[in-house]
Amino acid sequence: ATQKETRGFQTEVSKLLHLMIHSLYSNPEIFLRELISNASDAADKLRFEALSQPQLLEGDSELKIWIDVDKDANTITLRDNGIGMSRQEVIDNLGTIARSGTSEFIKNLSGDQKKDAQLIGQFGVGFYSSFVVAERVEVLTRRAGLSAAEGVKWESGGEGEFSVESVEKTDRGTTIILHLRPTQTEFSDSFRLKNIIHKYAEHIAIPVCMHSENWKEDGEREVGDYEVVNKASALWTRPRNEISDDDYKAFYQHISHDFDEPLSWSHNKVEGNLEYTSLLYIPKRAPQDLYHRDGVRGLKLYVQRVFIMDDAEQFLPMYLRFAKGIVDSNDLPLNVSRELLQSGKVVDSMKSALTRRLLDMLTQMAENKPEDYAVCWAQFGQVLKEGVAEDHANQDKVLKLLRFASTHTTDSIQSVSLADYVGRMKEGQDKIYYITADSWTAASQSPHLEVFRKKGVEVLLLSDRLDEWLMSHLTQFEGKSFQHVAKGDLDLGKLSSEEDKQAEEKLQQESQSLVERLKKVLGDKVEAVKATQRLTDSPACLVRSQYDLGVALRQMLEASGQ
Ligand code: ADP
Ligand code: MG
């Protein structure tokens, strides 16, 4: 061994390790899911690089994971023949937190152990979860293509420091040795491990092998050859009726780094002009970086079952960036690059088909599982709204997915669809009325609502940051136009009765001199002074002209320098 050096973990890693041990004590088994997932990723990466450099396979192209337990030594050893790591990669990958967002998130944790521990569960916990069960972890690895002398040994007790040294390693890939904590010896049991493999890794594409075991008649245990424990065929290539819900959920966790179960999924094989398989998931919770438009998004792309890339954002529009999943194409070339994906008929057609698929999933959820859709809207509604402007082809579908607060309900929960609203429209009502304000409270208490309340006409209460922008893109829904109740002249159309009209005439006559006086006093400060039937309780209110930009929109435009 040469060049042994000891290094400190990035501060966030130490923090993460500490929190993880506290947060995962009730679910320690997920370390195995994470390590198998990494080995499977390593196999994917090797297969991909070998497309252009076949020599990387070194004559050994059956990519697998082998797991051994040693009850006496209290260790678990996971070995793979995937891509492996160079010395620098070991230092970068196993000493820092590379994934975007996570590091930022950890920096901002509150310091409240219990709360933070719950939050951390939202993230893929990755390699460091080994320390939940192990008091010491050794990693031996050699990158494909490097010489045997360029092997690396990494070792750590998970407490602030790790060491790296160069070692001889003849076989390519990574071996991880977990020295179990005295409290976690249950994991040195091979039956326990096999159960966990069935649970979490049944349908990852790579075989997970363990020694077979037989009990001899005299009660002795006989250890046989390696056998494949899992089904080891990529989940999406199997027929739907052979896949259980638990399989789908486990696969979601494998690809999404999400600790939670998905809200829903859709698995489809498309044949004909275009051939591909897609497996799309809607998560239960928004990631931290949902509102960064350049945050991580997109699907995992496979071509003819070969992994090509993560986060292929070309297959879904921006406003569906919360969806996760995989797409496996038979039409794209194996050497497809991000640049090549930027344009092209195949990608375009797949994108519009996948977009429709996802919108259908959401529509069905809204119809058949409204409680699930409520969760979905609370998490992703603000992003879905972007679709109204972004996706004209599917605007009708997106409109049906929108949910609003309204005067029909008494709370701020956004639960009213445009279809609900239209269904409750009064005889003679031909517009969809709405109001925008800084908060739901301000909207729901606006004096502009008085006349609508009196007539029993529902008004949508909009108070999200994007709402004025959204309404500037909305012209009509099912032939009904939208009308801001605080803008322009109040025109209730056929909702006004004959008495209303007479009252209006009388009002205008009687208030003429008051209006004149107010105009004089207010001068340039207002565009106009008008007598109105808008109010029933309040004496006066401010009204914006029909074409005035909303306050929030004006602030947004000013902020962006327009
Ligand atoms: P993630 O898998 O989300 O990137 P992890 O903490 O699980 O995060 O792993 C960190 C990184 O360490 C991986 O991205 C990969 O580069 C490297 N790594 C982990 N395990 C292996 C392995 N078995 N073979 C090769 N590289 C690995
Ligand atoms: Mg991982």
- Number of helical segments? 19
**How is the biggest beta sheet arranged?**
9 strands, mixed
What percentage of the residues does DSSP assign to strands (E)? 15-25%
Q: What structural class results from the helix and strand content? A: alpha+beta
Helix content: 25-40%
Low-confidence stretches: none
Subcellular location: Cytoplasm
Main location: cytoplasm
InterPro entries: HATPase_C_sf, HATPase_dom, HSP90_C, Hsp90_fam, Hsp90_N, Ribosomal_Su5_D2-typ_SF
Protein name: Chaperone protein HtpG
Protein model, in words:
The protein has 562 residues and is of the alpha+beta class. The protein is built from 19 helices and 19 strands. The protein has a nine-stranded mixed β-sheet. Helix 10 (345-368) packs across helix 11 (370-384). Adenosine-5'-diphosphate is lined by residues 34, 38-39, 41-42, 80, 82-85, 93-94, 99, 124, 126-127, 174, 257.
Salient structural properties:
alpha+beta; binds adenosine-5'-diphosphate; elongated; Chaperone protein HtpG; 562 residues; 5-stranded mixed β-sheet; binds magnesium ion
SSE blueprint:
Blueprint: E1 2-8, H1 11-23, H2 30-52, E2 65-70, E3 75-80, H3 87-93, H4 102-107, H5 113-120, H6 130-133, E4 134-142, E5 151-156, E6 161-167, E7 173-180, H7 190-201, E8 208-215, E9 221-228, H8 245-256, E10 264-270, E11 276-282, E12 299-303, E13 306-312, E14 324-329, H9 338-341, H10 345-368, H11 370-384, H12 386-390, H13 395-401, E15 405-406, H14 418-423, E16 431-436, H15 440-444, H16 450-455, E17 460-462, H17 467-473, E18 476-477, E19 480-484, H18 498-522, H19 551-559
Parallel strand pairs: 2-8, 12-14, 16-17, 16-19
Antiparallel strand pairs: 1-6, 2-3, 3-7, 4-5, 4-7, 5-6, 8-9, 10-11, 11-14, 12-13, 15-17, 18-19
Helix pairs in contact: 1-5, 2-7, 10-11, 10-13
The structure holds adenosine-5'-diphosphate (ADP) and magnesium ion.
